[in-house]
């Protein structure tokens, strides 16, 4: 969008080298066009008209020009009676050039019944307006502009000190299909990253989260929780004691589980509330199946759910150590699978990952039985795919092996936790006891990736699996929930398998990758050493309330390596305190860039000075953080990360992260 004339700031433009900006001042050397002298001398106006006509004629069909902004903020110099006649002349010259692109004026907020504003609005093919006010005022502006039935573009917005922010305005613009251009994003010579009225030599303003930013994210979190209320899914076969414990736990988590569905896969028993040792209640439903449909029951039960999200767990796990972490993480990216396993299974799942960006294939396997959260839409979609591909004589016996297909056919990298898990043992075999389980599992594993790869490579069934990769990269980091209170999550982008996405995949030779023929503890496994190291130094060690066990990287440090903490929800009380005990050099810890975030995607850097609220213990490798002592604007966040800005021969080595009461 090219702007021809402008009525803002300095009135005396001059040819030649321009003066350097005044340090610390917003727009300190911006000049008007044509400038006060030519504006007052109407004998110069024919030259301005000719300039307008020549430029628009020359580029009237140039695809690089989207819009012509003929005059920016004509009322800015507060001499409308003089500017308006020139404005009419410029508009006439522009129209005479007959450009193919639309023309507009940069309109300031103000009464729409003024002569100038009416002319601007009626003469614009597209209404472009400026709004640095809070969202409520912007919404009123838009409501008034709608009466002109023209496309809308907000060509200037975002002033934090005035209450206009990305968080407050971009969602509204997107919803209302209003174009938006931010003015002053780059720290250039205009210095518009300083607020209006900044004094000479003002220090660079701190970028922090405003109250509007915080409230927006709090509201969004509540909206997501309401949209994705949770149904707990439990399968019963013969382990009654485990089901009783799980149902009791889910009922105790009243604020987490809206409903509970117990699917009875044992046709020899009619399961009742009395069997579960609970009273009949409107939150719990029992489905007695007349046939054992094994894994398929998980997705059938989710299909019956009245909520948009399901939590599934086998009947022999204690979910209290991680269920809140899984659900809070799911709300970050509800389109993908979120699951937790032990260290061996987590590492195996990484090995069972597939990438081929030439066909938009980016998927991985994850067991879901230890605990997992997924959307009801994904469960329903999965059942449809199973019916389409497997409901035939050749493959019908694989339908009970639904788990082998679920995460692979989602064509998304699952969000996987590794943690400290507690498992009960009732001495009862699983519901697969009558099957050649490993043979079926092998067939299902091979078929799942072959079907996906073939469908993406051809037009046949292409749309079933074509999915844009989830944008939130944090969900694919290595992570562990705090195993003793489930109140925060430790994460790192340093995976135990380095450069995972660069591992080549060829379906002709790698179709067995996701099978038990490829396990990390096998003698010939290429990742056996990595796995052995991960077993001893995995991320769960950093959050297990034991400083004798530690997480450590299996390589030297690189620029961009990071670790961090997710506190599950925004810590709005400004009184968070936590400690990190580490074994790497204290000098390295002190040099890490510390950033905070409300949503894991927009990060702001914590000021290096003063670093009040960060206390390094002299005699220990221990650092304590008290957010109430952080600078204003940095006390409220959900995520904090520590990133290396250098390559270093050493590596991160974290032994314990604790909340401080």
TrEMBL record:
It comes from the Eukaryota. This is Uncharacterized protein. It comes from Rotaria sordida.
């Amino acid at each position: 969008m090219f702007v021809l004339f402008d009525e803002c700031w300095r009135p005396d433009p001059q040819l030649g080298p321009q003066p350097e900006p005044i340090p610390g001042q917003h727009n300190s050397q911006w000049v008007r066009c044509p400038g006060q002298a030519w504006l007052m001398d109407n004998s110069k106006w024919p030259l301005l008209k000719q300039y307008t006509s020549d430029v628009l004629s020359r580029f009237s069909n140039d695809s690089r020009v989207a819009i012509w902004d003929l005059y920016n903020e004509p009322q800015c110099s507060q001499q409308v009676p003089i500017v308006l006649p020139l404005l009419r002349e410029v508009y006439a010259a522009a129209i005479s050039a007959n450009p193919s692109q639309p023309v507009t004026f940069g309109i300031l907020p103000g009464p729409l019944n003024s002569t100038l504003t009416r002319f601007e609005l009626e003469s614009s093919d597209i209404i472009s307006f400026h709004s640095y006010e809070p969202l409520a005022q912007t919404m009123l502006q838009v409501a008034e502009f709608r009466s002109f039935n023209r496309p809308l573009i907000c060509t200037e917005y975002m002033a934090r000190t005035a209450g206009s922010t990305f968080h407050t305005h971009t969602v509204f613009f997107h919803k209302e299909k209003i174009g938006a251009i931010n003015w002053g994003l780059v720290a250039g010579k205009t210095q518009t990253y300083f607020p209006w009225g900044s004094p000479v030599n003002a220090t660079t303003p701190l970028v922090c989260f405003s109250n509007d930013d915080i409230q927006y994210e709090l509201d969004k979190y509540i909206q997501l929780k309401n949209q994705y209320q949770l149904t707990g899914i439990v399968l019963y076969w013969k382990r009654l004691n485990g089901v009783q414990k799980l149902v009791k736990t889910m009922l105790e988590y009243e604020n987490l589980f809206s409903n509970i569905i117990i699917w009875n896969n044992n046709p020899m028993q009619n399961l009742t509330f009395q069997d579960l040792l609970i009273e009949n209640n409107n939150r719990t439903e029992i489905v007695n199946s007349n046939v054992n449909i094994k894994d398929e029951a998980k997705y059938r039960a989710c299909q019956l759910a009245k909520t948009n999200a399901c939590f599934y767990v086998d009947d022999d796990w204690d979910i209290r150590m991680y269920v809140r972490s899984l659900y809070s993480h799911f709300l970050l990216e509800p389109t993908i699978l979120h699951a937790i396993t032990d260290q061996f299974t987590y590492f195996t799942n990484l090995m069972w990952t597939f990438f081929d960006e030439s066909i938009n294939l980016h998927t991985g396997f994850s067991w879901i039985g230890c605990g997992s959260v997924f959307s009801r839409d994904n469960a329903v979609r999965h059942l449809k795919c199973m019916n389409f591909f497997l409901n035939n004589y050749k493959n019908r016996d694989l339908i009970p092996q639904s788990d082998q297909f679920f995460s692979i056919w989602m064509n998304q990298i699952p969000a996987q936790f590794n943690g400290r898990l507690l498992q009960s043992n009732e001495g009862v075999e699983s519901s697969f006891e009558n099957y050649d389980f490993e043979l079926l599992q092998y067939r299902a594993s091979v078929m799942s990736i072959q079907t996906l790869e073939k469908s993406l490579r051809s037009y046949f069934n292409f749309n079933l699996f074509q999915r844009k990769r989830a944008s939130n990269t944090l969900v694919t980091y290595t992570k562990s929930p705090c195993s003793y209170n489930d109140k925060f999550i430790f994460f790192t982008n340093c995976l135990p398998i380095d450069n995972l996405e660069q591992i080549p995949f060829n379906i002709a030779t790698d179709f067995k990758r996701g099978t038990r023929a490829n396990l990390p503890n096998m003698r010939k496994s290429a990742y056996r050493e990595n796995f052995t190291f991960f077993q001893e130094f995995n991320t769960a060690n950093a959050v297990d309330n034991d400083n004798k066990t530690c997480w450590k990287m299996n390589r030297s440090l690189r620029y961009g390596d990071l670790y961090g903490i997710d506190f599950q929800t925004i810590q709005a009380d400004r009184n968070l305190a936590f400690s990190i005990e580490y074994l790497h050099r204290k000098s390295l810890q002190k040099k890490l860039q510390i950033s905070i975030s409300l949503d894991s995607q927009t990060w702001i850097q914590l000021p290096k000075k003063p670093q009040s609220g960060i206390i390094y213990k002299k005699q220990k490798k221990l650092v304590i953080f008290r957010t109430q002592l952080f600078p204003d604007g940095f006390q409220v966040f959900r995520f904090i990360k520590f990133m290396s800005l250098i390559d270093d021969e050493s590596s991160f080595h974290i032994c314990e992260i604790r909340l401080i009461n």
